[in-house]
Amino acid sequence: MEEKHLKYEEQYEEKYKAHWDKVYEDLSNELTDNFREEFLDMHPYDQSLFFIEQSKENRMRIYAYLSPDELAEIMINIELDNTPAYFKEMNPRLGAMVLSEMPADDAVDIFNEMDKEEVVSFLTIMDKEAAEEIKHLLHYEEKTAGSIMTTEFVAVYKSQTTEQAMQQLKEDAPDAETIYYLYVLDEDKRLVGVLSLRDLIVADEKTKLEEVMSEKIVAVSVAKDQEEIAQMFRDYDFLALPVVDFQNHLLGIITVDDILDVMEEEASEDFSKLAGISETDRPNDTALAAAKKRLPWLIILLFLGIFTASLIGQFEETLDQVAVLAIFIPLIAGMAGNTGTQALAVAVRGLSNGDYENQGKLRLVLREATTGLITGTVCGAVISVVIFFWKDDLFLGFIVGVSIMASLIVATLAGSLVPILMDRLKIDPAVASGPFITTINDIISILIYFGMATSFMSYLT
Questions:
Q1: How the protein sits in the membrane (predicted)?
Q2: How much is the pLDDT for 59?
Q3: Total domains present in the chain
Q4: 271 belongs to a structural domain
Q5: Does residue 285 have a pLDDT over 70?
Q6: CB-facing half-sphere around the CA of 276: CA atoms within 13 A
Q7: By C-alpha distance, which of 101, 252, 106, 104 is closest to 181?
Q8: Please, where are the H alpha helices in 322-428?
């Protein structure tokens, strides 16, 4: 069965490659009709992959062969970082027409990647209605519900019958982002209910919408943070979520495809911060751009490293008397850094997923402290035995073992408490980056290690 499945996959890949090659051949030979037929038969995502692999010469042909709405479908599926470069290649009027054909929220995302001068230029020559809609969304603060919502939805009034609503749905469907939900408004255009497409289809034609709509509506404020909205989609399995103002007027909707982009963006951002990078470091960045993003944290960590070195210098007399202590500095600092980073990852993930809200911060911190105690005790006992047989010094093993145990407990607590503290201060917990926690734990572990060694110097010498 497995061999049959693999054979099917190989046949599919060969067929897919042959189709791709045929599209490329038609494009290169300027066979417009053949190219359009083969290319438009591809999935929009595959179209975008084909597009970005082409030379500039071939892309210019694609701009000429496809209509603005067909080009808009390609641009929607391309990474946001790359889209401004393609719009610069296009004739400005064509670029404006493509942007006009895109859903307003997707066009806003692209504008956010462009220079202000480019944005103004495109808005000036765009379709007036589309430009006004985009300007309206551009006013909202970035990374809020307002910035990612679309205004292309189906809204009906509670006084309408299902027959009237169905007729309106047919008229609005071509331009709507989704038709699976119809949002029901009162006379003042306030959101009062929601109606699924299924409910609309099965209801009697003469029934008023207020009789079949659901009044249990989950909506979000236009200023709500996009990360919190992503959590709501995950928790409630929404396909779309209405966005309202403070008076409950319906302003737009957020769809699941937009939230998938948000999740990817937030994950990339958190990963960059955990790695000690000020902004997301992307593969297509120049070496200079990558260095600019990495340098801020590296400079901070450099000075923290100098402080760590000067701290070790304070115990120079202890090292002079018992030089063997220096051997175990990397061991203790490394163990503390590693366990602190593990606790940090758990804490940041817990805050991101809402686990702390569900279980309580204190409970999770106590769990991390207990974990640190267990891992510290085991690691401390193991290293004590190793040192005893290696250096034939029972008390040195005791000092190193207890230091590791204490360091791991403190490092685990620091890794879980620092993100919680930052969250309380309304700072992104991911800012407590791995390198930052590692350096702080280095300092703490060295203080514990040399503090104990100095206190028990007479036993060591």
A1: Multi-pass membrane protein
A2: 93
A3: 3
A4: no
A5: no
A6: 17
A7: 252
A8: 329-353, 355-359, 361-391, 394-424
pLDDT for the residue numbered 5: 46
d(CA 15, CA 371): 53
Residue 297's H or E segment, with its range, is helix 287-313
Long-range contacts: 275-284, Cβ < 8 Å, 24+? 275/433, 275/434, 275/435, 276/301, 276/433, 276/434, 276/435, 276/436, 282/81, 284/81, 284/82
Structure tokens at 457: 């110097």
74-88, 325-339, 397-411, range with the lowest pLDDT:
325-339
Identify residue 30 by its one-letter amino acid code: E
Q: Is residue 390 part of a domain?
A: yes
Tokens standing for residue 378: 């085991």
Q: What is the residue whose two structure tokens read 């030979």?
A: 29
**Is residue 439 very low, low, confident or very high in pLDDT (cuts 50, 70, 90)?**
confident
Q: How far is CA 202 from CA 17, 207, 380, 381, in A?
A: 45, 11, 68, 69
Residue 76 or residue 287, greater confidence: 76
Residue 264 is assigned to a structural domain of this protein: no
Tokens of 419: 């993100």
- Domain carrying residue 138: 2-148
Closest among 330, 193, 159, 68 to 87, alpha carbons compared: 68
Please count the residues of the chain: 461
| Statement: the pTM of the whole predicted model exceeds 0.70 | no
Q: pLDDT digit string (tens) for 121-132? A: 899 999 888 888
